[in-house]
Amino acid sequence: MRVPNSVVLPVGTHVDCCRQEEVEEKRRDIMAKIAAMLAERKSNLAHFIDNLEGSEEPEFYMDQWERLKEMESCTLTILDLVAVNCTDHRDIKKLEATILEHVKNEELFPEVVRVLPPIYRQVEAAIVDIAQSEEMADHGMMDLQYLLSKLSQCDHLASLGRELLQDILRYLHRIGLVVWYEEIKHLESTVFLQPTFLITMFKVGMGIRTTLLCRVPALQ
Asked: Distance between CA 89 and CA 94 in Å, rounded?
């Protein structure tokens, strides 16, 4: 919702646990709830913006107004939900084909035909090598400046600058190869070369939080 021109493909799993009529019913219900959620978000943003514009001293809230207007301008395209049975390899292949079909749609992704400079692929390949090397820690975290120095050791990347690397990291972040939270001050100098580690860490964190919440009543 915060990324301009986002495209979302909802995926429903555990189809094998439902009857066919239930699958269609749940698909309609989920899509209706998504539509309602987006409508509520749009209404809430408009309400907040109106409140700021109608305040006695709106100039004091200019930063908030600009952020809200920016969020309001972010369009979100929701594609039809794809229902899959994760235990059936054919359904997984069907999902892959659906994703590929949407990605190739120039109306959804106008930049799909853009040709990347060769250095983007070179840096991507070098980062994959670094991430898979034995010296790489399991958490996959690496300081941005240290990553630049490692990449610069490659003969064909010796002239790689920090600004260009940041542009390439934004691209690699968008395609999911790395995770780089440049907008978060405490994380802007850290690149996660192993996104799967973050997923595992979040799962463990949520599990611990759930366990603690479950134990609170017993402590009272």
From this structure: 9
Q: What would the pLDDT profile of 110-138 be if each residue is shown by its tens digit?
A: 766 667 889 999 999 999 999 888 888 87
Neighbours of 49 (CB within 10 A): 16
Residue where a domain stops, chosen among 104, 128, 154:
104
Using alpha carbons, list the distances in angstroms from residue 171 to 96, 164, 166.
Answer: 21, 11, 9
Separation of first and last alpha carbons in the chain = 40
Domain that holds residue 142: 118-206
Looking only at the bridges linking them, the beta strands covering 190-192 and 141-143 are antiparallel
Q: Do 27 and 90 belong to one domain?
A: yes
Question: Is residue 57 situated within a structural domain?
Answer: yes
pTM of the model: 0.51
DSSP code per residue over 122-170 = HHHHHHHHHHHSTTS-TT-EEEHHHHHHHHHTSGGGTT--HHHHHHHHH
Note whether 70 and 135 are same-domain residues.
no
